[in-house]
Amino acid sequence: MQSDERRRLLAELVAGKGELSFTDAARRFHVSEMTIRRDVEALEQERLVMRVPKGVVPHTSREPSMSVRQRAFAAEKAAIASAVVPLLFPHARVLLDSGSTAYAIGKALRGQGLELTILTPSLLVASELAHEPGTRLLLTGGQLCPDEMSLTGPETVESIRSYNLDFFVMGVGGIHPRLGISDYNRDEAATKRAGIKSSDKTIVCVDHSKLHCSYLMKVASLDEVDMLVTDAEESHPTVQAARSQGVTLSFANVANTPPGSA
What we know:
By secondary structure, the protein is of the alpha/beta class. It contains 10 helices and 15 strands.
């Protein structure tokens, strides 16, 4: 079977099953797992599938579930989280976003002794930092989204607008060189826009899979944010577009991420 045909069938199989392990895919197509991994990399470039540990799930214009996102690119998100921590000074006032990358950052902040004031719409982030010594933890108002364990809506936006913040540590759905920063959800996008306006500096944290992607809800132009933290290569066109618009770049080193930190 030719690789193009195998990849087409693999994409259809993943779309039908919802999730497929590398082992099962290799067995079905009578090829090695390494061949399947190369096929998956090619399909990712076409935005047809998305890798998770030990397997693959469909890519969708709708945001994947939190459980899927936490498993997808977990090492990359842990590396990004480790790169964010040194950017925050002690006693800073920080808005920490909701989502899987923000959750990884919340985990990375434990034990750092920064004694931050953290405002967050994420109950998952709050649970990570609830007992962190010296941390002042504030939750936004809003309606609970049970799947995300986060708060959204007009109350969330108004809550964020009432604070003066040093940093907004923001996760996003996608970044595009021309279309800027976007997200899947109207309420989430409104929350992020409020965070940008209420913060002195906005740090966008994004793994390479979200670069050169755009979704329905516009969050901001690239020149509206201050820093991009990513595991992507410096030569990536979206990274270069951010640099050309004055965004400071910080690169996460996945190879240096300790095992089990994700």
